[in-house]
Amino acid sequence: MRGPNGTLVMFICNHCPYVLAVLDRIIRDATALQALGIGVAAICSNDADSHPADSFENMKKMAEERDFPFPYLHDEDQSVARAYDAACTPDFFGFDASDGLQYRGRLDESRNRPAAPDAQRELYEAMKLVAETGRGPADQVPSMGCSIKWKAA
User: Does residue 39 have a pLDDT over 80?
Assistant: First the structure.
């Protein structure tokens, strides 16, 4: 998963309308970033008991149906999401080659509907900069989406 020029970790899920609205763009940009030496992985941390669409079985189906070019990992105990302080789906964490966090922003200006086809590819451009310089952009707009579905305490 780790790439020679950095790593992108994405928190996504199967049911979120924000993720579903941009899933094609996520796949497009992940593929393009891998070509630049950025390793990519996606993680689903949602409580599958309260949101069965996000079960491991359904995650496997989505990854196969959409031909994900990256691993789609199940964070059943939610420890990874807590360690990252993930807040929503989608949530993007872009790291440099030394695992320093360089990008914590959005994919683009999409919300629960895709932005215009010519919208700035903020995540792609940020991670391309990380691959080339080791540093992310100074200006970053936080991602927006559905909250992580936490298990009851």
Answer: yes
